[in-house]
Amino acid sequence: MKDRITAAGHIEDGVLKVRHRKDFDAAVSLWNDGEVEVIVLRRRATRSDAQNRYYWGVIVQTLSDKYGYTPDEMHDVLKAKFLPKHLTFTDGNGTIKDSLVIGGSTRKLNKDQFGEEYCEPIKRWAAELGCVIPDPTDSWA
């Protein structure tokens, strides 16, 4: 049995309307009685096609050309540095036996997060290394 049920919906006149409500209710009915946590998050638009073209065509390509990595390798480097995901491995007693950092995913970043919290710090870091990343032009933005 799943420990998590996710549903989409919308707010209409201050009331939460769950999409596919019958499926949602059927999934919930399979659980035993007890406490649950309900979180409602506002959906934000993911990054735009223009942001994606600018990221891959300018930011990643400029850094790849300068440092000799493939675009996919550079993307992995940038995710590890600017979207770190910390993983730990424990034994049966909860003692940490190993840990590592990998790059998180850019896929779910909204437009503001992708631009201001991901791309802008990358551009500042590149400038510190002596690599100037051009600002987006109208054709990229």
3D architecture notes:
The structure is a single chain. The chain has 141 residues and is an alpha+beta fold. It has two domains: 1-43, no CATH class; 49-128, no CATH class. It contains four helices and four strands; from the N terminus they run E-E-H-H-H-E-E-H. The strands form two sheets. It has a two-stranded antiparallel ribbon. The protein has a two-stranded antiparallel ribbon with strand order 3-4. Strand 1 (9-12) and strand 2 form a beta hairpin. Helix 2 packs across helix 3 (71-82). The longest helix is centred in the middle third of the chain and has 19 residues, at 49-67. The termini are far apart.
Short description:
By secondary structure, the protein is an alpha+beta fold. 41% of the residues lie in helices and 16% in strands.
Topology:
Blueprint: E1 9-12, E2 15-18, H1 21-29, H2 49-67, H3 71-82, E3 84-90, E4 96-103, H4 111-128
Antiparallel strand pairs: 1-2, 3-4
Helix pairs in contact: 2-3, 2-4
Rough outline: flat
Number of helix segments? 4
Mean pLDDT value: 90
Total strand segments: 4
Between the first and last Cα atoms, what is the distance in angstroms?
A: 44 Å
Helix content: 40-55%
Rg, rounded, reads: 21 Å
Number of domains: 2
The share of residues in extended strands comes to 15-25%
The main β sheet shows up as: 2 strands, antiparallel
Query: What pattern of helices and strands is seen along the backbone?
Result: EEHHHEEH
Query: Uncertain spans, ≥5 residues at pLDDT below 50?
Result: none
Structural class: alpha+beta
Biggest β-sheet: strands ordered side by side in the sheet? 1-2
